Structures are given as C-alpha cells and as structure tokens.
C-alpha cells in the first residue's frame, strides 16, 4: 500500500500468490484454488452491501475492508484461532512456491483478499527474517568457539 509517496509495506510480493474473482476466474480449480469468502475462516464479516450474510454492516467497501484488516491483524498478533491457522497453512504453501489463488467475489475491486494476500506475504517474510537471524546467530556462535 502506498501512502504519502512511501510504501507502508516493505514486504515483497509473492508472484505465486494472487487474488482472483470467483465469477471471472478461468484458471485451474485444483488445490491452488482457495475460496476465502464468507463461511470460511478468512471470510470478511463486514459488508457495505445490505442484506448479505455478513455479521456487520459497514458504510462503504473501504470501511468493510479496513475493519477486516484490523481484525485480521489482531488474529496474526494473537497467533492462534481458525483465521491464523488458515493463514499459516497458506503461508507454508506459498513459501514453498506453490501457486495459490485466493478466491473471492469482489476482486479486482478493493477486496479483503488483498488483505489476506498481504498477511500471507508478511508471514513469509517474517519467517525468512527469523531464519536468517538464527543462521547469523549460529555463525557468530561458531566463530566465537573457534576464536576462544
């Protein structure tokens, strides 16, 4: 996301992870096809459209996606629950290079799928950074042993 000319999210995008519209998607509907709409752990419980299955009504699409973003970030910070578990499963697949199509009804318009995609990319990058840090610490420890 770009704000005031600067990226808020330095996390690199994953080329094998995409958000697609379930009504227009013509790609494979195999294991790479992951529906994230309402009724799933990653479904958006906010909607700007009246009389939907959403738990909460929002004034606009932007508000609905914004509230979802806040909710999902809390789930990531808590590190538990069905939504976080679903993110972790998708993170593992995406990090291994598997193609993952996050399927919703509103893409290419502003969509909670974009939030899910960003969350998965964040988790992949976080784990990469933690892995690099462990490697550095192990190398430093080895160097300390040889110097002593």
Strand content: 5-15%
The total count of helices amounts to 3
Beta strand count: 7
Helix-and-strand structural type: alpha/beta
Question: N- to C-terminal separation?
Answer: 48 Å
* Regions with little confidence, pLDDT below 50 for 5+ residues: 1-9
* Largest sheet entry: 3 strands, parallel
Concise structural overview:
This protein has 148 residues and is α/β, with parallel strands linked by helices. Helix content is 46%, strand content 14%.
Please tell me about this protein's structure:
By secondary structure, the chain is of the alpha/beta class. The protein has one domain. The protein has helices at residues 61-78, 82-95, 112-147; strands at 2-3, 6-7, 17-21, 33-35, 46-47, 56-57, 100-104. The strands form three sheets. A three-stranded parallel sheet has the order 3-7-4, covered by helices on one side. Strand 1 and strand 2 form a beta hairpin. Helix 1 (61-78) packs parallel to helix 3 and helix 2 crosses helix 3 (112-147). Residues 1-9 have low confidence and may be disordered.
């Amino acid at each position: 996301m770009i704000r005031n000319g600067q990226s808020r999210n330095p996390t690199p995008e994953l080329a094998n992870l995409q958000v697609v519209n379930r009504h227009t998607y013509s790609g494979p509907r195999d294991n790479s096809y992951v529906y994230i709409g309402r009724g799933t752990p990653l479904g958006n419980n906010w909607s700007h459209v009246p009389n939907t299955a959403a738990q909460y009504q929002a004034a606009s699409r932007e508000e609905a996606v914004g509230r979802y973003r806040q909710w999902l970030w809390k789930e990531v910070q808590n590190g538990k629950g069905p939504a976080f578990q679903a993110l972790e499963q998708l993170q593992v697949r995406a990090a291994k290079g598997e193609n993952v199509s996050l399927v919703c009804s509103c893409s290419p318009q502003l969509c909670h799928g974009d939030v899910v995609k960003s969350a998965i990319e964040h988790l992949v990058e976080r784990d990469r950074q933690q892995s690099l840090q462990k490697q550095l610490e192990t190398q430093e420890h080895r160097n300390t042993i040889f110097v002593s």
